[in-house]
Amino acid sequence: MTLPVLEPGRLFARLRRDCALEWDAYVRHPFLTGLADGTLPAEAFRTYLVQDYLYLLQYARCYALAIYKDGQAASMRSTARLLAGLLDTELGLHIEYCAQWGLSEDDLAREPESLELLAYTRTILDYGQSGDILDLMVSLSACLIGYAEIGLRLLADPATRREGNPYLHWIEVYGGEHYVALANQGARRLDELAISHGADARYAMLKRCFRTTVLLETAFWTPRPLRT
Ligand SMILES: Cc1ncc(C[n+]2csc(CCO)c2C)c(N)n1
């Protein structure tokens, strides 16, 4: 699998190139080195997994907002399918995966959202609410496409430990066919919206949104539990 989304001339490729320093800090974060060589402490991964479950719930709200902000039946239908897939399938898979790490559904539901999660998801929802469908899709792209880039790179990297690496499954999911196809689909939609909603004329603002979401996605690798 490849990510044609990185080809020049495509909106995502331009955003990624113009925020290259921030992007590299996100996709080459020490958390990921720890996943690749298997040295990440299990507790750090558990903390991340709980927050990621809560993140996916907020992501479902973003999909719902994307339907609201859209105006075209075909793309509304396709986002509705993604939303149903997330709520009916992906969340269930995440719960099963968390159970393998000793986390029950109650553990997931009980944990408060971290500051990083709150800042990240509410910022995306705010960009989407105060902007249009293009602002929202740009704000979602770092997360959707970044994980595919990370998964593909780690799968192809000879330094990634395969035998006895407890994190290999995570890498295989995000570098796998299903997830990479989802990322490419999102990037294609972004290119359509770039034309229909005039990305060139408002590029400076789109880049600011993108940069902020990349920084927030980077902070998400190491969420701090929010406790009173
Ligand atoms: C912090 C964070 N960022 C991106 C993903 C990647 N991801 C995996 S499933 C999904 C929803 C697509 O239906 C997305 C965006 C993640 N899990 N957590």
UniProtKB/TrEMBL annotation:
UniProt keywords, alphabetically: Hydrolase, Thiamine biosynthesis
Catalyses which reaction(s): thiamine + H2O = 5-(2-hydroxyethyl)-4-methylthiazole + 4-amino-5-hydroxymethyl-2-methylpyrimidine + H(+); 4-amino-5-aminomethyl-2-methylpyrimidine + H2O = 4-amino-5-hydroxymethyl-2-methylpyrimidine + NH4(+)
Single Gene Ontology MF annotation: thiaminase activity
Thiaminase-2/PQQC domain boundaries: 21-222
Name of this chain's protein: Aminopyrimidine aminohydrolase
Pathway assigned in UniProt: Cofactor biosynthesis; thiamine diphosphate biosynthesis
Enzyme Commission number(s) of this protein: 3.5.99.2
GO biological process: thiamine biosynthetic process; thiamine diphosphate biosynthetic process
Signal peptide: none
Entry function: Catalyzes an amino-pyrimidine hydrolysis reaction at the C5' of the pyrimidine moiety of thiamine compounds, a reaction that is part of a thiamine salvage pathway.
Gene Ontology cellular component terms for the protein in this record: cytosol
